[in-house]
Write a structure and sequence with these properties.
Chain A is about 0% helix and about 50% strand. By secondary structure, chain A is mostly beta strands. Chain B is mainly beta. Classes of the chains: A mainly beta, B mainly beta. At the A-B interface, strand 5, strand 6 and strand 10 of A face strand 10 of B.
C-alpha cells in the first residue's frame, strides 16, 4: 500500500544552520512527490515537487529536496535556516494506486531558534 | 497567479444551523478539492470534482454536501453538524482534472469552522 513517513514529529535547528526534514515513501509505481508548508492558522503552501529528471529539486523560499530512489526518500533541505521558516511541513506522494490522490505524511514541526 | 480564495475565514454554527463554505479559483483549473484538517494533522480528503463532476466522495457523512456550480466555484453546504466536525476546511485546485498525477494542488487559506 502507498504510504509516506515523516519520522520526526519535530525538528529543532539554530538560525543560520542547515536544516533537513526527512520523508520516506512507499509506492508501487513511479512516485510523484510533493512538499508543502503550513504556517500557523494558514492554508498549505506548495514548496516543490519531484516528477522526473534531476534528483535535486529547487523550490520556493530557498528550499530544495533530494530524491533518492534507492533509499525511497525525498528529504527537504535548506542551507541556512531562518526563524521565519518555523512551520509545519508535510510531504506527500501521488500515484495511480492511491486513486490519483495525495497520500500525506504526518507532518514535521520545524522550530528555528534565534 | 496561484490564488485560491475561501470565504468565510471563520464560521461558528450551532448543530441545527445550515451554512455554506465557498471556494473560488480563476486559474482555469479543472479539478477542485475539499479537505478537512484537524490541528497539527495532515489534511483528509473529502470530495473531488473533476471537470465539474463529482469524482470522489471519501465516504463523507451526508451532513456535508458539495456543489460545483461552474469550473471556478466550489461550495460545501453544511447541515446538522456535530461538534467533532469542528476543523479547518481547505479547498484546493489543480490544473488538469483529478488524474493529473504531476499536477500541483494549490490550497486556499481555509475556513476555520467551530460547531457548538
Amino acid at each position: 500500500a502507498q504510504s509516506v513517513a515523516q519520522p520526526e514529529d519535530q525538528v529543532n535547528v539554530a538560525e543560520g544552520n542547515p536544516l533537513t526534514v526527512k520523508c520516506t515513501y512507499s509506492v508501487s509505481g513511479n512516485p510523484y512527490l510533493f512538499w508543502y508548508v503550513q504556517y500557523p492558522n494558514r492554508g498549505l503552501q506548495f514548496l516543490l515537487k519531484y516528477i522526473t529528471g534531476d534528483n535535486l529539486v529547487k523550490g520556493s523560499y530557498g528550499f530544495e529536496a533530494e530524491f533518492n530512489k534507492s533509499q525511497t526518500s525525498f528529504h527537504l533541505k535548506k542551507p541556512s535556516a531562518l526563524v521565519s521558516d518555523s512551520a509545519l511541513y508535510f510531504c506527500a506522494v501521488r500515484d495511480r494506486d492511491s486513486n490519483y490522490q495525495l497520500i500525506w505524511g504526518a507532518g514535521t514541526k520545524l522550530i528555528i531558534k534565534p | 497567479d496561484t490564488e485560491v480564495t475561501q470565504t468565510p475565514k471563520h464560521l461558528v454554527m450551532g448543530m441545527t444551523n445550515k451554512k455554506s463554505l465557498k471556494c473560488e479559483q480563476h486559474m482555469g483549473h479543472r479539478a477542485m478539492y475539499w479537505y478537512k484538517q484537524k490541528a497539527k494533522k495532515p489534511p483528509e480528503l473529502m470530495f473531488v470534482y473533476s471537470y465539474e463532476k463529482l469524482s470522489i466522495n471519501e465516504s463523507v457523512p451526508s451532513r456535508f454536501s458539495p456543489e460545483c456550480p461552474n469550473s471556478s466555484l466550489l461550495n460545501l453546504h453544511l447541515h446538522a453538524l456535530q461538534p467533532e466536525d469542528s476543523a479547518l476546511y481547505l479547498c484546493a485546485s489543480s490544473r488538469a482534472g483529478d488524474r493529473g498525477l504531476t499536477d500541483t494542488q494549490y490550497f486556499g487559506p481555509g475556513t476555520r469552522l467551530t460547531v457548538l
